[in-house]
């Protein structure tokens, strides 16, 4: 409709000479194509990569035919070449985007040489300098190139961020399932206490009735002792605070750090947990802290030469945790971008190690994608932590976490207003 209106205004309104019959024929092809698509596809239809690229290629070819009939690159509507290219860069894969960009570039080059004159007043014809026309060709070509690069990188970053957030959400969901399992265990302990008590009472009565010399008295005593043992185990489970899930019980901060470091010991790397502050600090086993610190510790172990030091200190308001290894340190080129998704941690060690991320984080198929630090940073920021990355003066990486003390001593989460 826009093309029809433009053609009719130029030909009938402005009285400019142009091949209106050919122009209307090209527009009719587009109308036929769109009508066929509306009849073929339902109102909601997701195109495949190939179909979407083919439709955008048709748009470029149809626009090329219209511009070739109406002045070529001298026509100001040549700027419309950017539309299908930007749409492709924002939604399609790189191969299809580059193919459409090359098609648009070739079309611009074609209409800059082969085209009908620009519709104009025959009494005062417009003759544009060749240098100006060449400038239009250069500007359109560069515009297509920059638009493709900009739109593609922006869309690709959005896709990467979405995938990374999905991984983070999966990690939190797994921790929540563990938390739910702890609450279920406490509930089961409460419900099973009564029938186990009944079994113990009946077994005791049977033992009394049989006497010490009865044939089955040893079996009854065993039954009673095992029932009592089950009651003791369930009693311990039921005594846990049901408001705080089993996964979130309290323990000293140093003990929590030892627990986080334990799975990564035994691989030839010494992990030293140090409390530089006098006195004890009792914290909650929050899933964000366990999973986030676990990622950071395992990454440090992966790249350390002989040891990893975890130094914790605190005051009345904050808790500071330093994780230092004696490896080669972070690559300076990406040091400022650590914590973003799909940024690898230390490129200098890639030749000697299969991945710069920890294995536990990638149990779901994300090994080597640079998500370890992103997941850790995202989880720890949920409890108000601030994270900084750096290298020691000699060698080795240094990660510093500054966490509000209240968030570790309570539930482990700070909700922003």
Task: Considering the chains and any ligands shown, give keywords for the structure.
two-stranded antiparallel sheet, 7 strands, 417 residues, 10% strand, Helix Hairpins, five-stranded mixed β-sheet, Heat Shock Protein 90, alpha+beta
Structural commentary:
The strands form 2 sheets. The protein has a 5-stranded mixed beta sheet. The protein has 417 residues and is of the alpha+beta class. The chain has helices at 2-13, 20-40, 49-69, 82-91, 94-113, 130-210, 217-238, 253-261, 287-303, 372-381, 405-409; strands at residues 250-252, 270-275, 282-284, 307-314, 318-325, 386-391, 397-404. The protein is elongated, with a radius of gyration of 35 Å. Helix content is 55%, strand content 10%. The two termini are 49 Å apart. The chain contains 11 helices and 7 strands. Strand 6 and strand 7 (397-404) form a beta hairpin.
Topology of helices and strands:
Elements: H1 2-13, H2 20-40, H3 49-69, H4 82-91, H5 94-113, H6 130-210, H7 217-238, E1 250-252, H8 253-261, E2 270-275, E3 282-284, H9 287-303, E4 307-314, E5 318-325, H10 372-381, E6 386-391, E7 397-404, H11 405-409
Parallel strand pairs: 2-4
Antiparallel strand pairs: 1-3, 4-5, 5-7, 6-7
Helix pairs in contact: 1-2, 2-3, 3-4, 3-5, 4-5, 4-6, 5-6, 6-7, 6-10, 8-9, 9-10
């Amino acid at each position: 409709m826009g093309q029809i209106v433009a053609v009719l205004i130029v030909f009938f309104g402005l009285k400019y000479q142009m091949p209106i019959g050919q122009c209307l024929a090209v527009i009719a092809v587009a109308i036929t194509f769109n009508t066929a698509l509306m009849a073929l596809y339902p109102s909601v239809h997701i195109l495949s990569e190939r179909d979407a690229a083919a439709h955008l290629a048709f748009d470029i070819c149809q626009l090329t035919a219209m511009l070739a009939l109406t002045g070529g690159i001298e026509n100001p509507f040549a700027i419309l070449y950017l539309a299908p290219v930007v749409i492709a860069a924002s939604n399609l894969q790189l191969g299809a985007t580059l193919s459409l960009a090359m098609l648009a570039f070739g079309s611009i080059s074609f209409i800059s040489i082969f085209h009908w004159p620009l519709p104009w007043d025959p009494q005062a014809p417009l003759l544009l300098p060749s240098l100006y026309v060449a400038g239009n060709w250069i500007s359109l070509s560069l515009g297509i190139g920059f638009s493709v690069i900009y739109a593609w990188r922006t869309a690709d970053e959005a896709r990467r961020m979405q995938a990374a957030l999905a991984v983070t959400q999966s990690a939190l969901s797994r921790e929540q399932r563990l938390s739910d399992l702890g609450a279920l265990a406490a509930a089961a302990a409460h419900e099973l206490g009564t029938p186990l008590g009944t079994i113990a009472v009946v077994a005791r009565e049977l033992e009394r009735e049989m006497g010490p010399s009865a044939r089955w008295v040893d079996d009854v005593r065993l039954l009673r002792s095992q029932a009592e043992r089950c009651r003791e185990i369930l009693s311990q489970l039921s005594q846990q605070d049901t408001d705080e899930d089993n996964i979130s019980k309290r323990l000293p901060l140093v003990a929590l750090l030892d627990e986080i470091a334990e799975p990564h010991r035994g691989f030839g790397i010494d992990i030293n947990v140090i409390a530089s502050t006098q006195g004890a600090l009792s914290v909650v086993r929050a899933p964000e802290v366990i999973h986030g610190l676990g990622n950071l510790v395992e990454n440090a172990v992966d790249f350390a030469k002989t040891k990893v030091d975890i130094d914790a200190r605190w005051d009345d308001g904050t808790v500071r945790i330093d994780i230092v290894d004696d490896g080669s340190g972070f690559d300076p080129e990406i040091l400022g971008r650590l914590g973003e998704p799909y940024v690898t941690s230390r490129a200098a060690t890639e030749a000697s190690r299969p991945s710069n991320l920890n294995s536990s984080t990638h149990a779901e198929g994300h090994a080597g994608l640079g998500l370890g630090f992103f997941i850790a940073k995202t989880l720890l920021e949920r409890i108000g932590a601030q994270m900084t990355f750096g290298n020691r003066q000699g060698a080795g990486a240094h990660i510093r976490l500054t966490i509000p003390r209240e968030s570790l001593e309570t539930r482990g989460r700070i909700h922003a207003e």
